[in-house]
Structure formats: C-alpha cells, structure tokens
Amino acid sequence: MSTSLAMLNIAHGKFQLSVENEILLVSLRGEVNEQCAAKYIDCFATQAEKLAHKPFGVIVDISGFRGATPAAYEICNRYNKTLLTMPSFAGKAVFCPPSMSALYHISVAQQPYVQQQVKRELQQQFHDIAGATQWLRQKIMARY
Questions:
Q1: Cys-Cys link to 55, which of 26, 65, 83, 143 (CB 3.0-4.6 A)?
Q2: CATH number of 2-142
Q3: Domain boundaries in the chain?
C-alpha cells in the first residue's frame, strides 16, 4: 500500500512524505527554516503515530537538501528524541549521494538525538536507495 501524503513548500525548504507499508518515505529539498521544519515534524509525527502499532522505519532522501537553520535543526532534534523512545521505531536510512556526505555529517553533528540514533545503530547513511531499503527492511524484520 502506497499513500502519497504531502508535498509542501513552506517559506524555505520543501518536503514530501509518503507511506509504503511499514516505511515512511521522506524527501527533503532546499534550505529548511524553522517554519518548514515545524510543519515537516507535524506531518511526520502524525504519520509515525499511525505506523507505531507495529515496527516501522524511515527512509530520508536528502539528495536535494541544502542545509537548515539552527532553529530548524533544534525542532527536528526534539522529535528525534521522541523517535528514540518509540518501541516500534526500527531505524532510519538516510540516502545521500557521496557529494552530500559532508552535509549529512554536519546535520548529524547539529542534532544530539540523531547522534544517539547513529550510536545505537538506528540510523545509517547510504549512497543508494536499494541499500537503504534493504538495511531498513532487515531492521524492521528484526523487531518482529
């Protein structure tokens, strides 16, 4: 089952959310500010709660992401803390091309709860969607 949920352009930055079975698919684009981050987290949290009755995971495509303001990172970091407390959260696979690796590491460094996800092997970076999907499906199956 695939459901397209949202493609929103909020002040600065764009995001798209969709759900395929037990995976929440996210695409981030542009430079994200506080307004965009707040709307993104609101939409994300709504969908995550719908999936929370069984193991679920997240694939985030940051191939078009160009960074975020400190306030935007703070909003996202707070929700990443919530993800860490959800027993059904199996993991997050982040897709970014090799040329985006530095931005991925900067984003992780700005968010202490994302750092905890990485440390707990709940988040991993991938250079291809197929690898990200395979890793995430394994993480989800391990929760059953």
A1: 143
A2: 3.30.750.24
A3: 2-142
In order along its 144 residues, the chain shows pLDDT tens digits of 444 444 444 467 999 999 999 999 999 999 999 999 999 999 999 999 999 999 999 999 999 999 999 999 999 999 999 999 999 999 999 999 999 999 999 999 999 999 999 999 999 999 999 999 999 999 999 998
Alpha-carbon Rg for the chain in angstroms = 14
User: Which tokens sit at 14?
Assistant: 């764009």
Other CB atoms within a 10 A radius of the CB of residue 24 amount to 20
Residues 22/140, Cβ–Cβ less than 8 Å: yes
Unique residue bearing structure tokens 């709307």 = 39
Biggest CA–CA distance in the chain, Å, is: 40
